[in-house]
Amino acid sequence: MSELRTEELTINMGPQHPSTHGVLRLVLTLNGEIVTDVKPVLGYLHRCFEKHCEAMTYPQVIPYTDRMDYLTSMNNELAYVLAAEKLLGIEIPERVEYIRVIMSELQRIASHLVAIGTYGNDAGAFTPFLYCFMDREKVLELFEMVCGARLLYNYIWVGGVSHDITPEFVTKTKEFIKYFRPRIKQVNNLLSYNKIFIERTAGIGVLPVDVAINAGCSGPTLRGSGVKYDLRKDDPYSIYDRFDFDVCVGVGERGVVGDSWNRYIVRAYEMEQSLRIIEQAIDKIPEGDVHAAVPKRVKPVAGESYVRTEAPKGELAYYIISDGSLNPYRIKARSPSFCNLSVINQISRGHMIADVVMILGSFDIVLGCIDR
Amino acid sequence: MEINDIYNKLKKAFDDGIGEVKTDVPVSPFIFADRSKINAIALFLRDEESLQFDNLSCLSGVDYDKDNLAVVYHLVSYALKHSLVVKCLIPKSDPKIQTVSDVWAAADWHEREAFDLVGMTFEGHPDLRRILLPDDWEGHPLRKDFKVPEFYNGMKVPY
Asked: How many domains does chain B have?
């Protein structure tokens, strides 16, 4: 009998595929069930955000940043606004700083809920997905209460925020914190420590620390590999240095440090820490006028600024070059998902096709942020 | 480490490979470097004991002025918690620069993006293709003189 001949097979996963979390195409090279090469093809959602911005004034850019990573609009706005304010050199009222922190952390919870829910869905667990989206809806209701929009807010302005928070918002947020703490535990029971889920994710796609740092990975992807690095602690922006919270890392509670499960669990841990920050912020929030520092005309001096912030998905930074006119000369968004995704080839090789789905999900990518 | 100390260290090691240091500019100071020596400079920045810039936070291509493009490197050290901005000017008549993708893997996709949108060539890059735009797109949109084409593959572009 002649020897069996096998050929490598190349297939497309995406751009229309439920597990690629958007319009991403992965060109997989397969040896049987084993993946030997992954080539991501990007750009299906490219809107040339950076070129559009050059024709806008500084405040007009904010709605565009909303649409970058549409699950973390508040954090996008905050990063951009901080970079613009650094160029302007203006003082921000205390109250505004506190409101911004509360909104960012609420948004972090909403984003992590989507990440956890869809990740469970990737693994075949549909129930946690519904629980997570139910809770996320409560966060979105809070946002709706304060600014009228559920997803794309245009809320954080250069020098302030669009609407002051109401006493009703404070009460509802306190209620939410009380309601949400046990729900984190419930999600953990449903999904995180579920035997089937652990078997799908533990030991899959181990990302070594040196590779992660060299490739510019950040956020839960980096912390899943055990690196205790969080910009809110290590390079504090806004008023994050005033709050007491822990930086969560993957410690190999299940599986090994740096695998998909550890990247996942960092998000579940972080929701608890975000609740702690919101609690402290809402207690200490001072009185003030949220429009006091909003400039009539945003016209920074010629120069450049680069501000790094800890968005839910990792390090989100804006690089703004100003030529002293009303329009930015160049804006570059350093997106966390873009860098995190770039290691997928390295850590997927040798795994099964179904594992690539789990590895991709563990990065929690949003294509709006990658393709810009 | 402060930018002036880093500058002196670099100047000592590379002499004319390092241009001037700009500290009086609003908001963030930066160092100019030579585009034909940037790979060696990057390696030095990463491996030198007192610098340890292990993370390339961002790499941006910029249409800098009338005659020049630029590549801006935002470096961060996780180990020593300091940061640095390095700029390389590239004349538009000869838009070439050395790659740093062998020093920081993060540069791989960022350089492809800069090539795609601003149009400078990174010599030594292992896989320099367009990343965000389609392969058959003409021109580089982030150039200031870029004109939107009327048709792309028979489809009307401006609408």
From this structure: 1
Cβ contact, residue pair A304, B28, below 8 Å? yes
- Alpha carbon distance A327, A59 (integer Å): 10
Cα atoms found within 13 Å of the Cα of residue B157, Cβ hemisphere only: 10
d(CA A25, CA A239): 39
Give the residue numbers in B contacting A (CB under 8 Å), as ranges: 25-28, 54-58, 60, 62-63, 72, 74, 76, 78, 81, 85, 104-106, 108-109, 117, 130-134, 141-142, 146
Region of A136 on the Ramachandran plot (φ > 0 left; ψ -120 to 50 alpha; else beta): alpha
State which residues form the domain around B34: 3-156
Mean pLDDT of chain A: 89
Question: Mean pLDDT, to the nearest integer, of B101-108?
Answer: 90
Whether B74 sits inside 8 A of A306 (CB atoms) is yes
* Residue A174 tokens, joined: 């306190």
Residues in chain B: 159
Asked if A257 and A251 count as a contact pair (C-beta separation under 8 A), the reply is yes
Q: What share of chain B is helix, strand, coil (3-state, %, to 5)?
A: 25, 30, 50
Burial class (CB in 10 A: 0-12, 13-18, 19+), A314: buried
What confidence tens digit (pLDDT) does each residue in A121-174 have?
A: 888 888 999 999 999 999 999 999 998 888 899 899 998 899 888 899 999 999
Q: Cβ separation of B106 and A308 shorter than 8 Å?
A: no
C-alpha Rg value of chain B to the nearest Å: 17
E strands along B7-159, which residues? 18-22, 30-33, 55-62, 68-76, 83-91, 96-98, 121-123, 151-152, 155-156
Q: What is the pLDDT of residues A312-345, one digit of tens each?
A: 999 999 999 998 888 999 999 999 999 999 899 9
Residue A62's domain comprises 48-340
Q: What CATH number does the domain containing B82 carry?
A: 3.30.460.80
Distances (CA, A) of A99 to A64, A294, A345, B80, B87: 21, 15, 40, 32, 36
- What residue has token string 């920081």? B104
Q: What is the ipTM of this complex?
A: 0.89
Predicted TM-score (pTM) of the model is 0.90
* Rounded CA separation A4/B123 (Å): 43
DSSP A282-295: HHHPPP--TTTT--
> CB-based burial of residue A143 (10 Å sphere; 0-12 exposed, 13-18 middle, 19+ buried)?
buried
Q: What is the CATH number of the domain that holds A186?
A: 1.10.645.10
The answer as to whether A235 is a domain residue is yes
Mutate to test the interface with A, among B60, B69, B110, B152 (most CBs of A within 10 A): B60
Number of domains in chain A: 1
Q: What is the pLDDT of residue A2?
A: 67
